[in-house]
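COMPLEX REQUEST
Ligand: iron/sulfur cluster
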Amino acid sequence: MSLIDEIRRLKKERNAIILAHNYQRPEIQDVADYVGDSIELSRKAMDEKDAETIVFAAVDFMAESAAILNPDKRVLLPTLGARCPMAQMLTIDEIKRAKTAHPQAPLVLYVNTLASAKAYCDICCTSANAVEVIESLDAETVLFGPDRNLAEFVQRKTGKTIIPIPEWGFCPTHLLFQPEDVQILKIQYPDAVVMVHPECSTETQKAADFIGSTSQMCRYARETQAKTLIVGTEEGLLHRLRKDNPTKTFVLAYEGAICPNMKSNTLDRLYKSLKEEKNLITVPEPVAKQARKALERMLELKK
Ligand code: 13P
Ligand code: SF4
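STATUS: Structure written out below.
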Protein backbone atom coordinates (compact mmCIF):
# COMPACT_ATOMS: atom_id res chain seq x y z
CA MET A 1 0.00 0.00 0.00
CA SER A 2 1.38 3.47 -0.86
CA LEU A 3 1.98 6.05 1.86
CA ILE A 4 -0.94 8.09 0.55
CA ASP A 5 -3.29 5.08 0.66
CA GLU A 6 -2.08 4.32 4.16
CA ILE A 7 -2.76 7.92 5.26
CA ARG A 8 -6.27 7.68 3.78
CA ARG A 9 -6.90 4.38 5.58
CA LEU A 10 -5.68 5.74 8.90
CA LYS A 11 -7.75 8.87 8.46
CA LYS A 12 -10.91 6.75 8.28
CA GLU A 13 -9.86 4.54 11.16
CA ARG A 14 -9.10 7.54 13.40
CA ASN A 15 -12.08 9.59 12.21
CA ALA A 16 -9.62 12.30 11.28
CA ILE A 17 -9.49 15.15 8.78
CA ILE A 18 -6.40 16.74 7.31
CA LEU A 19 -6.32 20.52 6.99
CA ALA A 20 -3.43 22.02 5.04
CA HIS A 21 -2.31 25.61 4.69
CA ASN A 22 -1.77 27.03 1.18
CA TYR A 23 2.03 26.94 1.74
CA GLN A 24 2.25 23.20 2.38
CA ARG A 25 4.22 20.91 0.08
CA PRO A 26 2.23 19.86 -3.03
CA GLU A 27 1.91 16.23 -1.86
CA ILE A 28 0.42 17.39 1.46
CA GLN A 29 -2.02 19.75 -0.25
CA ASP A 30 -3.07 16.87 -2.51
CA VAL A 31 -3.79 14.45 0.33
CA ALA A 32 -5.59 17.06 2.49
CA ASP A 33 -9.36 17.24 2.87
CA TYR A 34 -9.19 20.99 2.74
CA VAL A 35 -6.54 23.55 1.74
CA GLY A 36 -6.91 27.20 2.70
CA ASP A 37 -5.69 30.37 4.37
CA SER A 38 -5.56 30.81 8.12
CA ILE A 39 -9.13 32.05 8.64
CA GLU A 40 -10.64 29.41 6.35
CA LEU A 41 -8.77 26.66 8.18
CA SER A 42 -9.98 27.94 11.58
CA ARG A 43 -13.57 27.93 10.33
CA LYS A 44 -13.19 24.52 8.72
CA ALA A 45 -11.80 23.02 11.95
CA MET A 46 -14.98 24.18 13.71
CA ASP A 47 -17.35 23.09 10.91
CA GLU A 48 -16.11 19.49 10.99
CA LYS A 49 -18.34 18.56 13.92
CA ASP A 50 -17.96 14.79 13.58
CA ALA A 51 -14.18 14.58 13.27
CA GLU A 52 -12.35 13.42 16.40
CA THR A 53 -8.87 14.30 15.19
CA ILE A 54 -7.57 17.19 13.10
CA VAL A 55 -4.17 16.84 11.50
CA PHE A 56 -3.22 20.47 11.02
CA ALA A 57 -0.53 20.66 8.36
CA ALA A 58 0.71 24.20 8.98
CA VAL A 59 2.64 25.95 11.77
CA ASP A 60 2.27 26.18 15.56
CA PHE A 61 -0.09 29.15 15.90
CA MET A 62 -2.64 27.75 13.45
CA ALA A 63 -2.76 24.38 15.23
CA GLU A 64 -2.96 26.17 18.58
CA SER A 65 -5.95 28.21 17.39
CA ALA A 66 -7.68 25.01 16.25
CA ALA A 67 -7.00 23.42 19.66
CA ILE A 68 -8.40 26.49 21.44
CA LEU A 69 -11.55 26.58 19.29
CA ASN A 70 -12.10 22.80 19.42
CA PRO A 71 -11.30 21.65 22.95
CA ASP A 72 -13.11 18.34 22.36
CA LYS A 73 -10.93 17.37 19.36
CA ARG A 74 -7.38 16.06 19.15
CA VAL A 75 -5.24 18.49 17.12
CA LEU A 76 -1.98 17.09 15.73
CA LEU A 77 0.85 19.06 14.12
CA PRO A 78 2.91 16.79 11.82
CA THR A 79 6.17 18.49 12.93
CA LEU A 80 6.44 20.04 16.38
CA GLY A 81 9.29 22.25 15.15
CA ALA A 82 7.01 23.97 12.62
CA ARG A 83 7.03 27.29 14.46
CA CYS A 84 6.30 30.65 12.85
CA PRO A 85 9.19 32.99 13.77
CA MET A 86 6.92 36.03 13.55
CA ALA A 87 4.70 34.59 16.28
CA GLN A 88 7.76 34.47 18.58
CA MET A 89 8.48 38.18 18.06
CA LEU A 90 5.80 39.51 20.40
CA THR A 91 6.55 39.08 24.10
CA ILE A 92 4.09 39.47 26.97
CA ASP A 93 6.33 42.23 28.42
CA GLU A 94 6.00 44.15 25.15
CA ILE A 95 2.22 43.81 25.30
CA LYS A 96 2.11 45.01 28.90
CA ARG A 97 4.35 48.00 28.10
CA ALA A 98 2.19 49.02 25.13
CA LYS A 99 -1.05 48.68 27.13
CA THR A 100 0.38 50.85 29.92
CA ALA A 101 1.52 53.50 27.44
CA HIS A 102 -1.84 53.49 25.55
CA PRO A 103 -4.50 52.45 28.08
CA GLN A 104 -7.43 53.54 25.86
CA ALA A 105 -6.29 51.74 22.71
CA PRO A 106 -7.73 48.30 21.99
CA LEU A 107 -5.21 45.56 21.21
CA VAL A 108 -5.64 43.63 17.95
CA LEU A 109 -3.38 40.66 17.39
CA TYR A 110 -2.67 38.94 14.11
CA VAL A 111 -3.38 35.21 14.50
CA ASN A 112 0.37 34.74 13.90
CA THR A 113 0.92 34.97 17.68
CA LEU A 114 1.21 32.46 20.50
CA ALA A 115 -1.89 31.63 22.56
CA SER A 116 -0.30 33.29 25.60
CA ALA A 117 -0.21 36.61 23.68
CA LYS A 118 -3.74 36.19 22.28
CA ALA A 119 -4.99 35.91 25.85
CA TYR A 120 -4.19 39.64 26.30
CA CYS A 121 -5.89 40.98 23.18
CA ASP A 122 -9.39 42.31 22.49
CA ILE A 123 -9.78 40.65 19.11
CA CYS A 124 -7.68 38.66 16.63
CA CYS A 125 -7.42 39.14 12.90
CA THR A 126 -5.91 37.44 9.89
CA SER A 127 -4.54 39.00 6.73
CA ALA A 128 -7.95 38.34 5.12
CA ASN A 129 -9.98 40.38 7.61
CA ALA A 130 -7.53 42.79 9.33
CA VAL A 131 -9.17 45.85 7.72
CA GLU A 132 -12.72 44.75 8.71
CA VAL A 133 -11.57 43.94 12.25
CA ILE A 134 -10.01 47.40 12.74
CA GLU A 135 -13.05 49.10 11.17
CA SER A 136 -15.34 47.21 13.57
CA LEU A 137 -13.66 48.89 16.58
CA ASP A 138 -14.97 52.11 18.03
CA ALA A 139 -11.45 53.54 18.37
CA GLU A 140 -9.23 55.76 16.23
CA THR A 141 -5.97 54.49 17.76
CA VAL A 142 -5.28 50.76 17.86
CA LEU A 143 -2.37 48.66 19.12
CA PHE A 144 -1.52 46.03 16.55
CA GLY A 145 1.02 43.21 16.50
CA PRO A 146 3.24 41.59 15.55
CA ASP A 147 3.51 42.29 11.79
CA ARG A 148 4.59 45.85 11.03
CA ASN A 149 3.86 45.54 7.29
CA LEU A 150 0.31 44.36 7.90
CA ALA A 151 -0.06 47.21 10.43
CA GLU A 152 0.98 49.74 7.78
CA PHE A 153 -1.37 48.16 5.23
CA VAL A 154 -4.29 48.45 7.66
CA GLN A 155 -3.38 52.04 8.52
CA ARG A 156 -3.40 52.98 4.82
CA LYS A 157 -6.76 51.25 4.28
CA THR A 158 -8.60 52.50 7.38
CA GLY A 159 -6.99 55.91 8.02
CA LYS A 160 -6.82 55.00 11.74
CA THR A 161 -3.63 55.33 13.82
CA ILE A 162 -2.14 51.87 14.12
CA ILE A 163 0.64 51.49 16.68
CA PRO A 164 2.77 48.45 15.80
CA ILE A 165 3.99 46.22 18.63
CA PRO A 166 6.80 45.34 18.58
CA GLU A 167 7.95 48.20 16.35
CA TRP A 168 9.74 45.84 13.97
CA GLY A 169 7.75 42.54 13.71
CA PHE A 170 8.10 40.83 10.34
CA CYS A 171 7.91 37.60 8.36
CA PRO A 172 11.42 36.60 7.21
CA THR A 173 10.03 34.89 4.10
CA HIS A 174 7.90 37.79 2.87
CA LEU A 175 10.68 40.33 3.50
CA LEU A 176 12.66 38.56 0.77
CA PHE A 177 10.44 40.16 -1.88
CA GLN A 178 11.98 43.40 -3.16
CA PRO A 179 10.14 45.97 -5.29
CA GLU A 180 13.05 45.91 -7.78
CA ASP A 181 12.40 42.22 -8.52
CA VAL A 182 8.77 43.04 -9.27
CA GLN A 183 9.75 45.95 -11.57
CA ILE A 184 12.11 43.71 -13.56
CA LEU A 185 9.49 40.96 -13.92
CA LYS A 186 6.98 43.56 -15.10
CA ILE A 187 9.37 44.46 -17.94
CA GLN A 188 9.73 40.75 -18.75
CA TYR A 189 5.96 40.12 -18.56
CA PRO A 190 4.36 43.44 -19.61
CA ASP A 191 0.80 42.03 -19.57
CA ALA A 192 1.12 40.44 -16.12
CA VAL A 193 -0.67 41.60 -13.00
CA VAL A 194 1.07 41.54 -9.61
CA MET A 195 -0.46 40.18 -6.42
CA VAL A 196 1.30 40.11 -3.06
CA HIS A 197 0.66 39.25 0.58
CA PRO A 198 0.36 42.16 3.08
CA GLU A 199 3.31 40.70 5.01
CA CYS A 200 5.53 42.01 2.16
CA SER A 201 7.21 45.37 2.74
CA THR A 202 5.17 48.51 2.06
CA GLU A 203 7.43 49.26 -0.94
CA THR A 204 6.70 45.85 -2.45
CA GLN A 205 2.98 46.25 -1.73
CA LYS A 206 3.04 49.55 -3.62
CA ALA A 207 4.32 47.74 -6.71
CA ALA A 208 1.30 45.39 -6.69
CA ASP A 209 -2.13 45.46 -8.34
CA PHE A 210 -3.68 43.34 -5.59
CA ILE A 211 -2.81 42.76 -1.92
CA GLY A 212 -4.51 39.98 0.00
CA SER A 213 -4.38 36.80 2.04
CA THR A 214 -3.31 33.58 0.33
CA SER A 215 -6.90 32.51 -0.45
CA GLN A 216 -7.88 36.02 -1.51
CA MET A 217 -5.02 35.79 -4.02
CA CYS A 218 -6.49 32.48 -5.27
CA ARG A 219 -9.83 34.23 -5.84
CA TYR A 220 -8.18 37.20 -7.56
CA ALA A 221 -6.22 34.84 -9.84
CA ARG A 222 -9.43 33.05 -10.85
CA GLU A 223 -11.34 36.25 -11.56
CA THR A 224 -8.75 38.43 -13.30
CA GLN A 225 -8.70 38.61 -17.11
CA ALA A 226 -4.90 38.60 -17.00
CA LYS A 227 -3.22 35.44 -18.24
CA THR A 228 0.06 35.95 -16.37
CA LEU A 229 0.39 36.72 -12.66
CA ILE A 230 3.49 37.72 -10.71
CA VAL A 231 3.12 36.38 -7.18
CA GLY A 232 4.64 37.80 -3.97
CA THR A 233 4.09 35.14 -1.35
CA GLU A 234 5.50 31.79 -0.20
CA GLU A 235 6.08 29.47 -3.15
CA GLY A 236 3.65 26.79 -1.89
CA LEU A 237 0.70 28.85 -3.10
CA LEU A 238 1.80 28.35 -6.70
CA HIS A 239 0.86 24.67 -6.58
CA ARG A 240 -2.74 25.56 -5.83
CA LEU A 241 -2.79 28.49 -8.25
CA ARG A 242 -1.52 26.31 -11.11
CA LYS A 243 -3.90 23.48 -10.27
CA ASP A 244 -6.92 25.82 -10.17
CA ASN A 245 -5.91 27.82 -13.29
CA PRO A 246 -4.21 25.46 -15.76
CA THR A 247 -4.33 27.99 -18.61
CA LYS A 248 -2.67 30.82 -16.67
CA THR A 249 1.03 31.43 -15.97
CA PHE A 250 2.27 32.13 -12.44
CA VAL A 251 5.69 33.62 -11.80
CA LEU A 252 7.10 33.77 -8.27
CA ALA A 253 8.45 37.28 -7.64
CA TYR A 254 11.48 35.86 -5.81
CA GLU A 255 12.52 32.25 -6.34
CA GLY A 256 13.90 31.77 -2.82
CA ALA A 257 10.65 32.65 -1.03
CA ILE A 258 10.30 29.48 1.01
CA CYS A 259 9.05 29.29 4.58
CA PRO A 260 11.23 26.55 6.13
CA ASN A 261 8.75 26.15 8.98
CA MET A 262 5.78 25.45 6.74
CA LYS A 263 7.95 23.13 4.66
CA SER A 264 9.15 21.16 7.69
CA ASN A 265 5.92 19.15 7.45
CA THR A 266 6.49 16.19 5.17
CA LEU A 267 4.22 13.35 4.09
CA ASP A 268 6.27 10.93 6.25
CA ARG A 269 5.88 13.09 9.33
CA LEU A 270 2.18 13.59 8.68
CA TYR A 271 1.77 9.82 8.44
CA LYS A 272 3.70 9.23 11.66
CA SER A 273 1.77 11.82 13.66
CA LEU A 274 -1.54 10.35 12.49
CA LYS A 275 -0.45 6.75 13.08
CA GLU A 276 0.98 7.35 16.56
CA GLU A 277 -1.35 10.26 17.42
CA LYS A 278 1.88 12.12 18.03
CA ASN A 279 2.50 15.87 18.45
CA LEU A 280 -0.75 16.64 20.18
CA ILE A 281 -1.23 20.42 20.53
CA THR A 282 -2.75 21.53 23.81
CA VAL A 283 -3.24 24.94 25.41
CA PRO A 284 -3.77 25.28 29.20
CA GLU A 285 -7.43 26.14 29.82
CA PRO A 286 -6.93 29.51 31.61
CA VAL A 287 -4.95 30.79 28.59
CA ALA A 288 -7.25 29.05 26.10
CA LYS A 289 -10.33 30.62 27.68
CA GLN A 290 -9.02 34.17 27.20
CA ALA A 291 -7.59 33.52 23.72
CA ARG A 292 -10.87 31.85 22.66
CA LYS A 293 -12.80 35.06 23.33
CA ALA A 294 -10.51 37.02 20.98
CA LEU A 295 -10.68 34.36 18.26
CA GLU A 296 -14.46 33.96 18.55
CA ARG A 297 -14.98 37.71 18.41
CA MET A 298 -13.08 37.70 15.10
CA LEU A 299 -15.01 34.70 13.74
CA GLU A 300 -18.33 36.39 14.58
CA LEU A 301 -17.55 39.18 12.10
CA LYS A 302 -19.06 38.64 8.66
CA LYS A 303 -17.28 36.16 6.41
P1 13P B 1 -2.82 33.60 5.22
O1 13P B 1 -3.81 33.75 6.31
O2 13P B 1 -2.92 34.65 4.16
O3 13P B 1 -2.87 32.24 4.62
O4 13P B 1 -1.36 33.84 5.81
C1 13P B 1 -0.77 33.08 6.80
C2 13P B 1 0.67 33.28 6.85
O5 13P B 1 1.36 32.74 7.68
C3 13P B 1 1.27 34.15 5.86
O6 13P B 1 2.64 34.09 5.96
FE1 SF4 C 1 5.29 32.69 9.68
FE2 SF4 C 1 6.14 33.93 7.47
FE3 SF4 C 1 6.11 31.29 7.56
FE4 SF4 C 1 3.82 32.66 7.43
S1 SF4 C 1 5.42 32.54 5.87
S2 SF4 C 1 4.26 30.92 8.76
S3 SF4 C 1 4.36 34.43 8.70
S4 SF4 C 1 7.35 32.65 8.81
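REMARKS: The radius of gyration is 19 Å. The chain is about 40% helix and 15% strand.
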